[in-house]
Amino acid sequence: MASKNPSFFFLLLSVTLGLWPLIFPASSTPSSYYYSSKDVASDDEGDWVLLQSSIGISAMHMQLLKNNMVVIFDRLDMGPSNLSLPNNTCIQKPNQPADCTAHSIVYDVASNTVRPLLVETDTWCSSGSLIPNGTLVQTGGYHEGERVVRTFTPCDDSSCDWTQLGVALGERRWYASNQLLPDGRVIIVGGRRSYTYEFFPKTDAAATFYMSFLVETCDCYGDENNLYPFLHLLPDGNLYVFANKRSILFDYNRNRVLKEFPVIPGEFKRNYPSTGSSVLLPLRLNGDVLPEAEVMICGGAPYGAFNNSNYKRVFVPASNTCGRMKLTDPDPKWVMEVMPMPRVMSDMVLLPNGEVIIINGAMNGTAGWEEGTNPVFNPVLYKYYLHDPARRFVVLSPSKIPRMYHSTAILLPDGRVLVGGSNPHEKYNFTSYYPTDLSLEAYSPHYLKPRVSTMRPSILSVETSDGIVLYKQVFSVTFQLNQYNPGSKIFVSLVTPSFTTHSYGMNQRLIFLEVIEVRQLSTYDYKVTARGPPIATVAPPGYYMLFVVHAGIPSQAVWIKVV
């Protein structure tokens, strides 16, 4: 849908058919009320490219792998997709017609092609993490899939597919969150009516641990608002857990709350279905000192928003606020900022230069089937490092496709942002006002503009053994740079590939390594020497995208493994 506002024909049709509250509710406010085209800064504008008009499924969950492939999947209970399974393969469930279509694909970034995959149990609203060897461990889902553990190990041919493990989760994990831990395990937290956490792998298949915080933060007789809790591993090894409006410092080994942080100010809830988003801002390393850790949470909806949209068809305005809090301060406090427009169901993606892009979503309503309206077409760039809060948010050029409930966005190794999905319906629905969307787009941020190409580093080599960086290891990266800006520093950033669904990038993390030296080798060749992360609590073991950043402009990434 190319326009934010319905034509007169649609307006007349909606009134005639009694669909007015769904299409243009009284509480919805046109986006032009909040910002106009003159607010879009040309220096920061990026470019949108439609990669695929249809990949056959809706990109509800996405995970980038170490071989530059992206695993994408939706769910098994929404009807046949638009992509057939190969070799006449079908899934037959009791009392249901056979489904011979794919509900998962692997997307090849380089060739812009897709290959169907076979997933056998329902993955709706599930969670996932890459483990240190690069395998995706995917957990939970719906109905027969709610306790299932699935894995996908990347390969360089067409032989790899989903594997469903024989071990079951201890409880249903539907709308749960995952985080990779320093010892290589994955912690799985929460889910609908699951007030526990557990680990994968584990010695006792039934071992789950009660977490009272999940009960305390549930609006259980209203909207819930604590599903998909935000998890961030902190440099001291403890877990930051945010749900609803509250957050804690949690020792998961001893099942103990070490600290409760201040409640985020304002009336707005921040977790599903009042879906905001969260990132841990970049960690800057300097020697063996543990870095500061600061969380940022944006968007959401007020209490009752889900029930208002679901039962009354009144779509209340979303939150236009973000909160930042330095979790490592002795006396942490929220610092609130105002976005250019309200947002719910938006994704927050860490870019290689440390900036944050806020993308997708709506301005009214909540997550859920037909629960949101008034899509936000314009991403927003957030420059966390600027001292003046008034200059931190920059409205970017818009997409033409509404990305509502069940849309996703992830960072690619070339610096683009891959965007897909949007299915705010119980089934595939291609005729509604906000139809199911099967397309994939790429957003190219400002640093990919041709005018800055001469200042973009190009990595020539990483001086490590087999691409492995040890903790505290000093190593060098040789890169080419046609135009060096003497007033700009050279940074080396490590970025984890996140598992993204429901506006939350699980395991998303960006680390600026300590740079020891930058040396010019020839007219255009340079060598930067950096020190690897100090410990696994700062950088959990596994695969990272390594970028060299000059003047805010990142190179294309190379993959390294931190061990």
Q: What features would you describe in this structure?
A:
The chain is mainly beta. It contains four helices and 45 strands. Strands 20, 35, 37, 40, 43, 44 and 45 form a seven-stranded mixed sheet that branches. A six-stranded antiparallel sheet has the order 5-4-3-2-38-39, with no helix packed on it. Strand 2 and strand 3 form a beta hairpin. The radius of gyration is 23 Å and the shape is globular. It comes from Lithocarpus litseifolius. This is Glyoxal oxidase. Pfam families: Glyoxal_oxid_N, GO-like_E_set.
Morphology: globular
Radius of gyration: 23 Å
Q: Give the overall average pLDDT.
A: 92
Helix share of residues?
under 10%
The secondary-structure class comes to: mainly beta
Poorly predicted residue ranges:
1-42
Q: Major β-sheet, in short?
A: 7 strands, mixed
Number of helices: 4
Keywords: Signal
Protein name: Glyoxal oxidase
Signal peptide: 1-25
Pfam families: Glyoxal_oxid_N, GO-like_E_set
Describe the SSE topology.
Layout: H1 8-16, H2 20-23, E1 47-52, E2 61-64, E3 69-73, E4 104-108, E5 113-117, E6 127-130, E7 136-139, E8 148-152, E9 163-168, E10 177-180, E11 186-189, E12 196-200, E13 209-210, H3 212-216, E14 230-233, E15 239-243, E16 246-251, E17 256-260, E18 268-269, E19 277-280, E20 283-284, E21 294-298, E22 301-302, H4 305-312, E23 321-326, E24 335-338, E25 347-350, E26 356-359, E27 362-365, E28 372-375, E29 380-382, E30 393-395, E31 407-411, E32 417-421, E33 440-444, E34 458-462, E35 468-469, E36 474-480, E37 490-495, E38 499-501, E39 504-506, E40 510-512, E41 514-520, E42 525-531, E43 542-550, E44 553-554, E45 558-562
Parallel strand pairs: 20-40, 35-45
Antiparallel strand pairs: 1-33, 2-3, 2-38, 3-4, 4-5, 6-7, 7-8, 8-9, 10-11, 11-12, 12-13, 14-15, 15-16, 16-17, 18-22, 19-21, 21-23, 23-24, 25-26, 26-29, 27-28, 29-30, 31-32, 32-33, 34-36, 36-42, 37-40, 37-43, 38-39, 41-42, 43-44, 43-45
